[in-house]
Amino acid sequence: MSAVALLKLQRAGFTDPQVEALAEYLDTQAATRADLLEFKGDLRAEIAELRAELKGDIAELRTELKGDIAELRTEISKVRTEVGELRTEIASVRSDMRALEQRMTIKLGSMLVAAIAIVSALIKLL
């Protein structure tokens, strides 16, 4: 509080202890305000630092994720290729089984004809 302000208070009828108490209160308030402004500045600096750190961390994570995604795409491509190969093999096995089924049908048919011929011959002989 300035000396002029103190004189004005005394002239207005404030006692010396009242003026001193008011001056101390105003000084305390001014100091508190200065402390708050300093704290505010420190807090802003810390927030800016945290933002910078977070931006760096986010950029690092993006890079890692892009790498992981690329690896997964490669793996998916390999799996798709393997699935295609398996489908080709399954189709080949099915084709082989159909051919085997046809050959077995022909052999069993000829065996039945032979068996019928043998049974007919035995019936005629007996």
What would your notes on this structure say?
The protein has two helices and no strands. The model has no long low-confidence stretch (mean pLDDT 91). With 126 residues, it is an all-alpha fold. 94% of the residues lie in helices and 0% in strands. The protein has one domain.
- The best one-word shape is rod-shaped
The structural domain count equals 1
Taking the alpha carbons of the first and last residues, their distance comes to 145 Å
Q: Main beta sheet, described?
A: none
Oligomer: single chain
Question: What level of helicity do the residues show?
Answer: over 70%
Order of helices and strands: HH
Topology diagram in text:
Blueprint: H1 3-11, H2 16-125
Q: Which descriptors would you attach to this protein?
A:
single chain, 126 residues, mainly alpha, 2 helices, 94% helix, rod-shaped
Summarize the model shown.
The chain is built from two helices and no strands.
